[in-house]
């Protein structure tokens, strides 16, 4: 067990996944803080029974993952904090490896490793998540929800932005990099994740949240030199909204414009030949539609003078 690390677990109605998460942390960290966002499945009682210190968020305010992580971070006393989502399990050996890197690189604020899906074979959507988690090793622009972080660096940038519905980790990492800190992805096993995405509707909602995050990130830090998520937002809007409108409206006025619809199978073909993964190619193109929807809903909310609030956390 490392006395230098405390864990902050966040969750909402994770059920058996939360119990497995807490069990994986036992003996690896000095203290476990569980932050619950309005669970109704007995998660709070289960976490207390597992020995975790429990924080329950006020239901009068909107739940966000960032808000939950900040609530846990406020109680951390150790110099390092392992953030982990309640649907994940921490791999044995990760904490020593992550700490060693942080000790050798004092300007590194965040280290993360390989997050894998427990059941990638359960659905094409789970397998897509497993591919998404496999980012390049080395200096990184951002991390995901599971990461080992330096408490002093988080304090310097005031932690996560609690108003962000999604994309709070890349936002945090960008602010850390602006402040001179580094983010690093290690070639090490870190967590096992249980997405349990078994239906198209679940995947669609997840992709829509990603589009919302892209648009909000671009609105916040899209100007040079950062250009945060500008390309992702533009790509989603072009493929998911602009081109369909041109095809439908333009095709009605002048039928040859309807042939632009062939751009979609052509894009699938291009991505499939390049990657050799045809399901990934299909869903990469299909995902632009919910991503565009999420981005447009974000901008609609801004026009109405609201920030977020259109897409539920979890």
Give descriptors for this structure.
314 residues, alpha/beta
Overall pLDDT confidence: 94
**Beta-strand level of the residues, as a percent range?**
15-25%
How many strand segments? 9
The gyration radius over C-alpha positions equals 20 Å
- Name the poorly predicted regions: 308-314
Q: Based on CA inertia axes, which overall geometry fits? A: globular
How many angstroms does the end-to-end distance come to?
31 Å
The main sheet comes to: 9 strands, mixed
| Count of runs of 4 or more consecutive helical residues | 12
Structural class designation: alpha/beta
Return the string of H and E elements.
EHEHEHEEHEHEEHHEHHHHH
Structure characterization notes:
This protein has about 325 residues and is of the alpha/beta class. The chain contains twelve helices and nine strands. Strands 1, 2, 3, 4, 5, 6, 7, 8 and 9 form a nine-stranded mixed beta sheet that branches. β2 (about 30-35), α2 and β3 (about 55) form a beta-alpha-beta unit. α8 crosses α9 (about 230-255) and α8 packs across α12 (about 290-305). The longest helix is centred in the C-terminal third of the chain and has 24 residues, at about 230-255. The radius of gyration is 20 Å and the shape is globular. The chain starts with a strand and ends in an 11-residue tail after the last helix. The model is unreliable at about 310-314 (pLDDT under 50).
